[in-house]
Design brief:
Elements (H helix, E strand, L loop, with lengths): L17 E9 L6 H8 L5 E5 H7 L5 H12 L5 H17 L9 E5 L5 H7 L3 E10 L3 H15 L7 H15 L2 H4 L5 E5 L4 H20 L2 H5 L3 E2 L4
Parallel strand pairs: 1-3, 1-4, 2-3, 4-5
Antiparallel strand pairs: 1-6
Helix pairs in contact: 1-9, 4-5
Bound molecules: adenosine-5'-diphosphate.
């Protein structure tokens, strides 16, 4: 059941205390996380949840929507408490509608966690089995890609080159350290240069064995695997 809405600023306490096995799609803006995520979303057994997509689907006229817009339009991160609250609400809604089926689907998170504090907050909700770091050293190529995406999709976070460059600065300062939060055994660094299919193959090489291991024992998956720390 979806949780009762937590007030803004309150720590979100999920009523469903399961920790869902998850893989993180990680990397700089424009590196292709969303492309891989949307392909994975079409494969049975994966459930892709993008924090950016969640924010873009929120009613911009409401209180949360106005605050989110303020941060996104500057290329800044949305505050952690609000981010995790809304992310968890979206996850609960998908579970309620059975678009996310915890017994069958490996959760693929895209765009979250975006700093170490979010990584700590998410520990209560997910068990990170893999962090897939899509790497591309050609920042200029990615900036060009984002400018094209802005024209195509009208995204406010890519509206100007200044905002895009600010997003890179936020990535290097706040997001890149997230990969050090996790055990090195779960980190997979993949070359993000290549066709979507070539990169998909690299991503699946990591994810398929994890999916097999997590869902091989149906009763373990049915229990939602590991209880949250302190549960
Ligand atoms: N986990 C998060 N924490 C804070 N802000 C976020 C988070 N995810 C997305 N955002 C906000 O939404 C914007 C767009 O995110 P996203 O769609 O993931 O961008 P990209 O795919 O280019 O990396 C970010 O620049 C940020 O302002």
């Amino acid at each position: 059941m979806p949780d009762a809405p937590a007030r803004h600023g309150e720590r979100h306490r999920a009523t469903d205390r399961r920790r869902f096995p998850a893989a993180l799609l990680f990397g700089a803006p424009g590196v292709g996380k969303g492309t891989q995520g949307s392909i994975l979303a079409r494969i049975p057994g994966f459930f892709h949840l993008s924090s950016g997509d969640i924010f873009r689907s929120i009613d911009l006229g409401g209180e949360d929507g106005r605050e989110i817009t303020r941060h996104i339009s500057r290329g800044d991160l949305v505050p952690d408490e609000l981010t995790v609250k809304i992310w968890r609400r979206a996850l609960d809604a998908h579970m309620f509608l059975s678009s996310f089926k915890p017994r069958e689907d490996l959760l693929i998170l895209d765009g979250i966690p975006r700093n170490v504090h979010q990584a700590q907050m998410l520990q209560e909700h997910v068990e990170v089995k893999a962090l897939i770091h899509l790497e591309c050293t050609d920042t200029e190529a990615m900036v060009t890609r984002l400018r094209r995406r802005a024209l195509r999709e009208g995204r406010m976070d890519d509206a100007s080159e200044d905002i895009i460059r600010h997003r890179y600065e936020v990535y290097s300062r706040a997001t890149a350290p997230v990969s050090e939060f996790y055990d090195p055994s779960v980190i997979h660094r993949l070359d993000a240069i290549g066709s979507p299919a070539a990169i998909l193959r690299r991503v699946l090489d990591v994810l398929v064995p994890i999916q097999d291991a997590v869902f091989a024992a149906p009763e373990a998956a049915a229990e939602g695997e590991t209880p949250a720390p302190g549960a």
